[in-house]
Amino acid sequence: xxxxxxxxxxxxxxxxxxxxxxxxxxxxxxxxxxxxxxxxxxxxxxxxxxxxxxxxxxxxxxxxxxxxxxxxxxxxxxxxxxxxxxxxxxxxxxxxxxxxxxxxxxxxxxxxxxxxxxxxxxxxxxxxxxxxxxxxxxxxxxxxxxxxxxxxxxxxxxxxxxxxxxxxxxxxxxxxxxxxxxxxxxxxxxxxxxxxxxxxxxxxxxxxxxxxxxxxxxxx
Length: 220
Fold this sequence. Notes:
The protein is 64% helix and 0% strand. It is an all-alpha fold and 220 residues long. Helix 1 runs antiparallel to helix 2, helix 1 (3-33) runs antiparallel to helix 6 (185-217) and helix 2 runs parallel beside helix 6.
């Protein structure tokens, strides 16, 4: 089974899902900001309040975009995990490579990265750092700490490892508060691109080095 083909197909779907899902909420924000119908005038608006018209609706639209981005990154993380799991299973079956499962004690991505390093593939660390943060972001998204907000924050351990988180905005980072997990449009697209490139390059490396790996791990 060509797992790379399935990974690429899934990544394309994830990107399609993200772009199409945010469209109505982007339009809603645009209409509110430009006072276009149906957000041109609110009959019940209290002009003495000092707040912009349709503020609640604008916030709902903005948070909806955030949640869609979070869902997208969660899907991407799961796809990357499944690819690496299948890739290593094939490596074991076809070359005789073995590993101790204790390598996953610090997370599945660092564990798989160690296997990749073991067989001689040289990673681009700045790029794999972003991919690890895809996995870390997914963990935070899927395990929120409060019911009172849709805002997701980075964990203290994650910020200690990555003091300037990839999925955040500078304005959200404060000495007294944990950085908010903010996934912008360009970072969604870049994460999908990096995932596809990494998996494709890793798969090419494998097929180019199968004979050498079989000899190294004595698979006949």
